[in-house]
Amino acid sequence: MSAKSFLMAFNLDMKQATSSPSNQRGFTLIQVMLILGLLGVVLTVATSAYLKHQSKHYVKEALVEAGQARQVVAENAKSDTEGTTKDWAKGYAKKTGENHSWTVYVDPTSAAVVVTLWLSKDPQTLLWVPLKGSPTQAESGSSGQISEGGLNWVCVLKDETMPDVSKLFAPLSATVPKADFSGDLVTSDCR
To answer: Is 100 among the domain residues?
Structure first.
């Protein structure tokens, strides 16, 4: 079989092999680039939304664990009838979240519940600090204060001042980190 008959058998003569652009099918380079650009935008928006949702989940999970820690401190305060408790963390071990996204622990000397979150490259901390007695009318209406387990707690976020030492249940120890968590992802009881 000659080469010419071979090409004719498969309908591949020289005219079809070098056909004009009007007979070609497919996408142009500009169309492909446009589709890839649109996919990039959609993936960027979807990834951003997913990461924000995941961050909210981790914050909620950490705040639920902080509630458990506050309950342990409240139980220790109830069992301390003579004011002799020195280890407010008794009965509570430091907890770590999924993928090490957060940690919660109780400072044994000040009874502060320390919540550290790793939502970005740097850790951010918020504090739940117990207060003495019942809050005054002005304090009880303020945001970030709750009464739980017989103790009154205040949530301290970034750029918020710590309550006066005379109002604290116990003085803060030097090991308690400064609160630097912004309040955009926390629940309403901590704003």
So the answer is: yes
Question: Looking at the domain assignment, is residue 127 inside a domain?
Answer: yes
With residue 156 as reference, give the H or E element that holds it. Answer: strand 151-156
Q: How many domains does the chain have?
A: 1
Place of tokens 């008959």: 5
pLDDT tens across the length of the chain (191 residues): 565 555 455 554 445 455 555 667 889 999 999 999 999 999 999 999 998 899 889 999 999 999 999 999 988 888 866 656 578 899 999 999 988 899 999 999 889 999 999 988 889 999 999 988 754 433 444 467 888 878 889 888 887 888 888 888 888 888 899 988 887 777 777 76
pTM, two decimals, is 0.74
Q: Please indicate, yes or no, if residue 165 is contained in any of the structural domains.
A: yes
Q: Is residue 10 part of a domain?
A: no
In angstroms, the first-to-last Cα distance of the chain is 86
